[in-house]
Amino acid sequence: xxxxxxxxxxxxxxxxxxxxxxxxxxxxxxxxxxxxxxxxxxxxxxxxxxxxxxxxxxxxxxxxxxxxxxxxxxxxxxxxxxxxxxxxxxxxxxxxxxxxxxxxxxxxxxxxxxxxxxxxxxxxxxxxxxxxxxxxxxxxxxxxxxxxxxxxxxxxxxxxxxxxxxxxxxxxxxxxxxxxxxxxxxxxxxxxxxxxxxxxxxxxxxxxxxxxxxxxxxxxxxxxxxxxxxxxxxxxxxxxxxxxxxxxxxxxxxxxxxxxxxxxxxxxxxxxxxxxxxxxxxxxxxxxxxxxxxxxxxxxxxxxxxxxxxxxxxxxxxxxxxxxxxxxxxxxxxxxxxxxxxxxxxxxxxxxxxxxxxxxxxxxxxxxxxxxxxxxxxxxxxxxxxxxxxxxxxxxxxxxxxxxxxxxxxxxxxxxxxxxxxxxxxxxxxxxxxxxxxxxxxxxxxxxxxxxxxxxxxxxxxxxxxxxxxxxxxxxxxxxxxxxxxxxxxxxxxxxxxxxxxxxxxxxxxxxxxxxxxxxxxxxxxxxxxxxxxxxxxxxxxxxxxxxxxxxxxxxxxxxxxxxxxxxxxxxxxxxxxxxxxxxxxxxxxxxxxxx
Length: 596
Fold this sequence. Notes:
Blueprint: H1 3-8, E1 10-11, E2 14-15, H2 22-37, E3 78-80, E4 83-86, E5 91-93, H3 97-110, E6 130-139, E7 143-153, E8 159-170, H4 178-199, E9 206-211, H5 214-221, H6 229-241, E10 247-249, H7 258-262, H8 266-270, H9 273-277, H10 297-303, H11 332-346, H12 358-376, H13 378-387, E11 402-403, E12 409-410, H14 422-425, E13 428-430, H15 435-447, H16 453-460, E14 464-466, H17 469-479, H18 481-486, H19 500-503, E15 511-513, H20 534-550, E16 557-562, H21 565-571, E17 588-593
Parallel strand pairs: 6-9, 9-10, 13-14, 15-16, 16-17
Antiparallel strand pairs: 1-2, 3-4, 4-5, 6-7, 7-8, 11-12
Helix pairs in contact: 4-6, 11-12, 15-17, 16-17
C-alpha cells in the first residue's frame, strides 16, 4: 500500500504526502519509516498540521521549533519544494512577504460573497405586461465586458429592473486603443444579447444598447465600408445583430458595466445596487432617458474620413539610379526585360505590341552599361569627352579607355587587326563590386556550367573588363551554393614507414644516399664516347671519395641509390670508365630506393 506513495509523493529526498484520517496518516508514516530503513534511509524533519502524528517521532527528527499545540507558533511557516506552508492554519503561500498581506485581505473579502443572494426568477414570480432588454458595455485598460438587464412593467405600472447575465474578458496583451477595446465590448454585448433573445424567446422584445464612448457610437452609425479593417469587421458584426438606432449614449457614472471593466472589492460589490438593479434612469419613464445618439458631422468626418483617390505615379529623381530600384530578383535577364518593357511603352504609338523584340533587349543592355559607368566613372567620362583622355591618376589610365558610338566606355589596346569580335577587342569597362556586375558574373558562371574562377574570368573578358575581376570571380564562385556543395575534398596521402636504415642509430656516413636531378642534355660530337650527365658524374665522384677517404679499411657502409636504370649501368660499367667502381671488390653495399 505504501509503494505508490513512495513512487509519487517523493521528489529526490523530500516527501510531501497526506491522508484522510489521523490513523491512516500514522500507518503511512510507520510503513515509510520501516521500508526506507531497510536501505539505510532515515526520514527526518517531520512536519504536519496535526500534532498527534508527531507523538511517536523522536524530538530530534521533528522540524525545529514546530510545536503545534502552542499558540505562540501559530504564524510559523515552513518552506518545502518551493512552497511556503503554515502548518497551524494549513495554508500554502507562494507569494513574497509584501504580497501576503494583500492576499490575506483578498481572502477575507471572498467571505463576503457568501452573503450575496440573487433571486432565481427574473420577474419575482409575477407576469409582466412588457419586458425590455437593456445591454451596457464598457472597457478599461485591464478588461472589457457587457451586462444585460431585464426591465419589466407590471399591470400596476410598477417597474422592475433585474440583472440577467454578464460577460467579461481581459484586455489583450498587445496594447490597443481604448475606442477599439470599447468596440470589442460592443461586439460582445451584441452577441450576448442575441443569444438571450434566442434562448428566452424574446426576439420581439424592445432592445437597447448603452455605451459611454461617442467614438464607438459614431462607428456604429457609419456604414460598414470604413477603411480601417479592424473597425469595419466589427462594425459589420454589430450591424448583423442589431440596428444602429438601438444604440444610445450613457454617461460613465450611469454605465452599469463599469464594474466589469474596472473591478472592486467584494464588500463594495455586495452593496453596489446599480450592478444588481441597473441605473436609476431605467426605473423612470422612457421620456427621461438620454436622447438617442446622433453623430455630428465633425465626428463622422473624424471617424470615417473621405476616401482619397489613389493613382500610381512613377517619379525618377536621378536617371542613373533607376536600375538599382527595379525588383529584378538577382537576375540580369529580368532586369533587361523590365527596362525593355519600360522603353517599349514609353514610345508614343497608337498600337503597341506587348512582345519585346531582340533590338529592345540590346538597347536595354546599353542603357544598363551607360548608367553603371556614369555612376562610377563619371569624372573620367567627362574628362574623356573634353580632352580625349582620362583624369591623371585614374585607375583606368593603363587600359587606354575610349567611348564608342553608343557612349559606352571600352578598353583600348592593340588588337584592332585581330580576327575577333569587337567586344573581345575592346571589352566594356565595368566597376568593381557593383550589384549589376555581380549579377552578370553569376549569369556567366551558371551558363558555363558553374565554371571555376579562372575560367569565369577568362569567359567574362570576352565581353567585359571588370576592375579587380579576379577577386570578383573568386567571390562569385565561393558564393555559389551548388559549387560549394559539389566541391570535392582532396585526399591526403599517408606517408609510409621509414626504412630501417633511416631509423637505426649509426656512425656518421655509415648510412648514406645518392640522388640526382635532371637529366641535363649536353652537346657532343660524333665518334666521341657516350656522355654522362654532370650530376651523375658528380655522384660517381662522391662514391669514389666515400671509398678512398671516408671508409676505413676492413669496414663497410650502406649506400642508398635511386631506383633508376642509369645508376645501375654506371655502377657496373666496363673497366674503361673513368669512374668505374667494382662493387664486388669494394667495401660499399648498395640498396635501391624509390626516389627518382
